[in-house]
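Researcher: We're teaching a course module on how sequence relates to structure. For the next exercise, students receive a sequence and then see the predicted structure as tokens, so they can try to spot secondary structure elements on their own. Here is the exercise chain.
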Amino acid sequence: MLLKITHRTEYRYDVPVHYALQRLRLVPYGGSTQTIRSWSLAIDGAREEVRFTDHFGNDTRLLSVEGDPHVISVEATGEVETHNTAGVMGAHRGFAPLWLFGSETPLTATGEGIRGLAKEINGGADLDRLHRLMAAIHGRVAYTIGATDSTTVAEDALLQGTGVCQDHSHIFIAAARLLGFPARYVSGYLMMNDRLDQVATHAWAEAHVANLGWVAFDVANGISADERYVRVATGRDYRDAMPVSGIRLGQAEEQLAVHITVEQ
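Model: And here is the predicted structure for the students to work with:
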């Protein structure tokens, strides 16, 4: 499937910004599930200071801003040909060792809720256990926009029973690690069947299974990733793979607008 993606992020400020530094992870990479046909980044109101590939294999750009202008925009556009591999991503690659994805992070720290969930998933083949884990979380945590934020930890989202794709992924990652599977967070894009315009990127999880490698699980939708998904960045949790992050100095009030389209 050939997907066309446009992702525009715009920041508006009421006064000049003394200084700001932004980190972008907005460039997808090719692999067994996707071929990058074209991709570009258009940046206005900021300058690129450096670009590098981080230890998770993510294309990373650092931007700096000083003074005027009052508007900063970043637009990522491109075409990606995707391939349906039934969620199987393949062997582990990159500088980060596989064991790193078996350790807790602040966002995936476990409590009684996640430990109890993991104990329920016993017996059966590895893939069967992971699919049952995905189904259990999907049934317990309702997709509810605004119920959580980017700082919500997995245990809290599970206990309150509401969240978004970030929370679903963190719960799955935390429980999968307890079951003995290295697990990681994936940020990217999903072509929706019922809409063209979106206001946020999508997120899902991957678990490493012996003899298969990384396998993708989208808990929010209850499926493994197919040809509608485009992977952009991976990491131990959201903080390692977030599309845009940064710091800002000064008293300027910020207004953020995000517009995404994913179409065939």
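Model: If you want an answer key for the exercise: The mean pLDDT is 94. The chain has two domains: 2-82+244-263, 88-239.
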